[in-house]
Amino acid sequence: MRRRINKDWLxxxxxxxxxxxxxxxxxxxxxxxxxxxxxxxWKGLIANYAWAGWSNYEKLFGDPRFHIDVRNTLIFxxxxxxxxxxxGFLVAVLLDQRVPGEAVFRGIYxxxxxxxxxxxxxxxxxxxxxxxxxxxxxxxxxxxxxGLEFLANRWHTTPPPWGIAxxxxxxxxxxxxxxxxxxxxxxxxxxxxxxEAARVDGASEFQIYRxxxxxxxxxxxxxxxxxxxxxxxxIFDLIVAISGKDLRLDVPSIYMWTTTFDANNYARGASIxxxxxxxxxxxxxxxxxxxxxxxSEI
Amino acid sequence: xxxxxxxLYLFPxxxxxxFYLLPVYVLTITGLKSFAEVxxxxxxxxxxxxxxxxxxxxxxxxxxxxxNSAVMAVPAATISALLGSMNGYVLSKWRFRGANVIFTLxxxxxxxxxxSVLIPLVLFLRRIGLYxxxxxxxxxxxxxxxxxxxxxxxxxxxxxxxxxxxxxxxDGAGILRSYWYIILRxxxxxxxxxxxxxxxxxxxxxxxxxxxxxxxxxxxTVALNNLAGTQIVQWNVQxxxxxxxxxxxxxxxxxLGRFFLRGLMAGAIKG
Lengths: 298, 271
Hints:
The complex is a heterodimer of chains A (about 300) and B (about 270).
Chain A: H1 2-38, H2 55-61, H3 64-95, H4 102-110, H5 117-127, H6 138-145, H7 163-188, H8 192-200, H9 205-216, H10 218-234, H11 237-243, H12 252-262, H13 266-297
Helix pairs in contact in A: 1-13, 3-7, 3-10, 4-7, 5-11, 7-10, 8-9, 10-13, 12-13
Chain B: H1 2-31, H2 53-93, H3 99-111, H4 118-127, H5 134-157, H6 162-170, H7 175-183, H8 188-204, H9 207-212, H10 220-229, H11 235-267
Helix pairs in contact in B: 1-11, 2-5, 2-8, 2-10, 2-11, 3-5, 5-8, 8-11, 10-11
């Protein structure tokens, strides 16, 4: 019996070992390798691991293009997170009122999650067509016809720094349904007794949301921020599909792509990759450690 | 009074639904217009009839790439789901010392920006001779799919009572037998979740696809982006192409949406 169990533990190790090996190499090994490239002088098609210290990072911190990237990421993040979370939360509250056809609405709000950012980008590049005069089209045309000319604008071709904020519109279109689903699940997990009790105490519906429900949804909101935040740092395909490699809408992941694979500046590309990783890690690691600790207490 | 209040809630919900459906409306009506009708200034108008010219042209251009996507996404989703199932089983029912640490290290792999591993990935695939090929892309999707599939299966297996396995163990079943006869037999729902999630994300993926494959092996996302980036291809063809590229995952979403939703919520970790 004892031997059998020991053998089982060994087999357990064997079952999981391919994945441990794969993650060990492809995630942690490759991160280490990237760090090494980022500390090298590798520029050009031939590998060159000559030591460069932190100089690639220092150059990036002084690089105007990287400054634009950071600014664009910040602006995008603010608009994207605010839009997706506010819309997601409000829709969840509305749907939570047991409206007729709830399932249909949910289905419609969530379907953009199932399609590619590239498809979204192709559709929205026409909706956000900035052309004017007789070539007006997309949403601007719709605004013209609906007597809402004042809403017509240049979308993502708005002069910097605000052009990038319009990229958040299709991103919100794609991700706010997910936020709705998260918040709705959160709302549904709040026991009705709690609302009843507050109602009995004479609280108005608004007060119930403000004082009871919103505080209880804080963990959900935190998840939402982490999920959207890391997507926001990595945003790449959507921008490429809407505007190609437009420098005004540049973000670190596009810079990494062009500098590495178009300009063969591997050392700089690796540095940008590692900086992105640091950004994501700052956001995600505390969250992972926290959720795991909370779980092992159960 | 209460029902009138509910109708008031309906108004913003309907308006919002229109906003979500707007791009689909444009893609569809544009795709269905004849080449003669395609005019930016009339882009919101209905087509005069059903014309499939644009879809035909888009399909002609995207066909090999739709095939590439299928040949890539199906095996990649299947293999990563199988690995996830094995990992989930071990990490929920055979929790050796350090199992939680391994799980957390796996999970972090779900969030990393792939830019931070991209250069070694290219160098590695070149060295093993898979750079530019579909098998290379499958390998990459399998590996980076392990975190989410492990998470899905681990959370699901945690709900299977340990007593069941305990009883089997007393009857002399070892780890593999328990896995085969008990766990796998109960795994259908989580396989549905993992397969659907993986299929959708791999089909929709762009970064690995554009960097790691050569043009003839491009999945549909890369081919579509390329189609949309050229001036030669008319925009109605681009829109029809976008719809074609979205059809497989939309079908999955429409018919198996609840599994998709569960995958989505699993990705939120606490779900």
